[in-house]
Design goal:
By secondary structure, this protein is α/β, with parallel strands linked by helices. The chain has ten helices and nine strands. The longest helix has 24 residues. It is globular.
Length: about 325
């Protein structure tokens, strides 16, 4: 097996491990997420805000189409991505965020010399310190985009640590990309030949469940769920929903350029002579049909998916029952 595939195998198994955070790990209270200023002494306040704001695009697993969605978002003049030959194409900033929360909480709790130390003040200070750490991450990646940009776009084809997103980035916007897990798994095992089919089903299910488990009261405010299939079928209509979520003007979006978007590493249309996926951009859209690729599965594969990820598929709205 190629070394690249081996790395992804190891990464896949790593995502099956339980989160590092435990019941003993401090958590930031939800009531602190909407704080806009902090009075650090009588009559003296600091304002808590960060420009540009962050829009974070996540998908449950690679091969979910997040590269296509990110390029659609970048057709808006006020959304910029920190691209460059010496910069990562995916930032993965949430996968170890529990350590940031633990650091902020334990650091403040252990500080000495307070005039008016109370449990409530410690919790408030912890939330503010954690927000400052989040601001620092945004500040770092903002160095690589135009200063006048309203949104910094970062992305990750994984949802590990997603439950901590609003604690670290309370003002940021989260865009969660859903896709039929059967198509994702089919694309995944075709891309990385030799990858365990059942494990791929498990990874998609776990990643999707993290998105579906986000608080209902935050839907449409802090995060937005979008479906790949709907975006692929009607990109202009669906992108308007995202722009409304981000409070961005449609007049600054290049709707006339949507049809010019190429294919980004399709497991069907971007395979080279060696049978490996070519991750370079291609305009070969002939017979490109990203929906329904799983229908070639054997009965055994269908049964494995139903057993491992069938309930998630129903919960995500792709089936009403297991009779498919």
């Amino acid at each position: 097996m190629k070394e690249r595939a081996k790395r992804f195998l190891r990464r896949g198994f790593d995502k099956l491990l339980p989160p590092v955070a435990s019941a003993a790990t401090p958590r930031i209270g939800k009531k602190y997420l909407d704080i806009t200023e902090f009075e650090f002494s009588e009559g003296k306040k600091i304002t808590l805000e960060k420009k540009p704001n962050l829009v974070y695009l996540v998908a449950p697993l690679q091969r979910s189409g997040h590269n296509y969605i990110s390029h659609l978002l970048l057709k808006h003049e006020q959304i910029k991505f920190p691209g460059g030959t010496n910069l990562p194409g995916e930032q993965n900033i949430m996968q170890h965020a529990e350590h940031l929360i633990s650091y902020a909480s334990k650091t403040v709790a252990g500080q000495k010399g307070w005039e008016n130390k109370t449990d409530e003040l410690v919790k408030l200070q912890s939330a503010i310190l954690l927000r400052a750490i989040g601001y620092s991450l945004i500040e770092f990646y903002s160095k690589f985009i135009p200063v006048e940009s309203k949104y910094l776009l970062l992305k990750d084809p994984a949802t590990v640590g997603l439950e901590n997103f609003s604690s670290v980035f309370p003002e940021a916007k989260l865009v969660c990309l859903l896709r039929d897990g059967r198509d994702v798994v089919q694309s995944y095992i075709k891309t990385w030949k030799g990858f365990n089919f059942e494990l791929a089903c498990k990874l998609w299910s776990d990643g999707t469940e993290r998105m579906l488990n986000l608080p209902d009261e935050d839907k449409g405010k802090r995060y937005l769920l979008i479906g790949y299939e709907k975006v692929f079928a009607n990109p202009a209509d669906e992108i308007k929903k995202v722009l409304a979520f981000l409070n961005l003007s449609e007049s600054e979006y290049a709707f006339d350029k949507i049809g010019e978007l190429p294919i980004f590493g399709s497991s069907t249309n971007s395979v080279n002579e060696k049978g490996e996926v070519d991750w370079s951009i291609t305009n070969n859209k002939k017979d490109f049909k990203p929906v329904g690729k799983w229908q070639q599965w054997s009965a055994e594969q269908k049964n494995i998916f139903k057993r491992v990820a069938g309930e998630t598929l129903i919960r995500a709205g792709y089936e009403q029952n297991g009779n498919w």
